Amino acid sequence: QVPLGESGGGSGPVGGSLRLSCVASGIAYSSAYMGWFRQAPGKEREGVARISPSSFAVYADSVKGRFTISRDNAKNTLYLQMNSLDPEDTAVYYCAAIRALPWSVNDWGQGTQVIVSS
Q: How far, in Å, CA of 26 to CA of 12, rounded?
C-alpha cells in the first residue's frame, strides 16, 4: 500500500487558481509514473494529468492549457497547478502512482475536495 497525502484543495472562484500537493511514501517515487485524478459528483473517476519520471506530462483535453502537473523527486511530492478554474472542475482530486499506462492505479489516497464557485 502506498500512503498518499493530498492537500491544497478548497474553494476557488471561476477563473481563479488553486495548487494541489501530494506527498507519496512507500514507493521508489523518482522512478514512478504519477498522476492526478478527479471524481465529480455522480461521475466516474477520471485521469486529469500524468507525469513520467523524467517529467514528461500528458493532460486530459478538458484541462489542457489550464492545469500543470509537476514533481519534486527530492521531496517525493507531486503538484497540480490549476488555473482558469471552471465549475466543471469541481470534484474530489486524488494523486496516485500509475502502475500501468495510461491510467491504471492500485492504491488511492483520501483525496482533496475542490469547489469552483461562480
A: 32
